[in-house]
Predict the structure.
Amino acid sequence: MPDVTPIPLAQLTTLRTGGTPTRMIDARTKGELVAALHEAWTEDGAWLVLGGGSNLFMGDGPFEGTVVRVLTQGIERMPSPRPGFARLTVQAGHDWDDLVAYAVREGLAGIEAMSGIPGTVGAAPVQNIGAYGQEIVQTLVEVELLDEGAAEPVVVPASELGLGFRTSVLKHHYGSAPARTAVILSVTLELEEIGHAERPIEGEQLRSALGLDEGTGASLAWVRGHVLETRRRKGMVLDPNDPDTYSAGSFFQNAIVSASFARTLPPECPRWPLEPDPDKFLVIPLDSFDGYVPPPAVHDPAVKVSAAWLIEHSGIRKGFKLPRSRAAISTKHALALTNRGQGTAAELAELARFIQGRVHSEFGLILQPEPVLVGVEL
């Protein structure tokens, strides 16, 4: 586990920002990763774990500390206690999309709609990645992690990770520290064994993205191919020849608001309730009916609204940039802030603040950044 010559983080992050760290360690096995973390935690200075660099927004200055690059690889398939399911334990440094491709080849369902998401498997539970109605919380069984300062790793069930919309107890939210400071070493998922035949696609978001009617069937490979093509059209699949992909994906989270606040937004603003509609019919057995019919329960679940729609309808169009800036909105997707070539973190932050201000002025809410910000402020 030797040190390597530190590389500027602008070369290792998809937003292409960040200075050179004081020290850099490459960890290619789980044992090397544990040892590297122990070293980093006993030294003075900051430490940073780096996977694919696709969810990091690094400041322009040098990083005064140790960067541990997670380069571990491997997928292990195991039986599941549930009939018709299989479990996959995957090393933290494994490429996420490579895992999805493997699952599709093996006829394992549950993560195919998350094809093309950049980054590593170990980063996936940290922000509960998701796309088109699928989230890792739906298939995650457990993670093996090392808490800061601990001697040995522990296995933690998914139920203890506080998984919510793009969040967990492990995530470093903008302006606050994570509830649990730890590094994921491996991830275990449980996927359904469905093979390669077509089956009806569940979930309105996914059907809408794929242009499918309710009840229409599709295979896992077909879903993966069409999700990748949809993401490519939006500049959300990394391509060194396309500056629209020099981004951290969706820079702002879709906003979670109360149902009452959502009703103040224009009706054409896309929105999705976070909970299914309750049953519309109340059934009371005749042998227990006493003549009293209880009033319907009041249920007003929170609503997820489209940040991309809010941005575009605050007057900011795809391709927008501030004067003399090398940061711009993607020409393909309003949620992606892109580095158009040698742009600085300061330029990207200035654009992000401008967008936040416009959306707040027009609609009364402040969009929250999705990537982890290190050495930069909005």
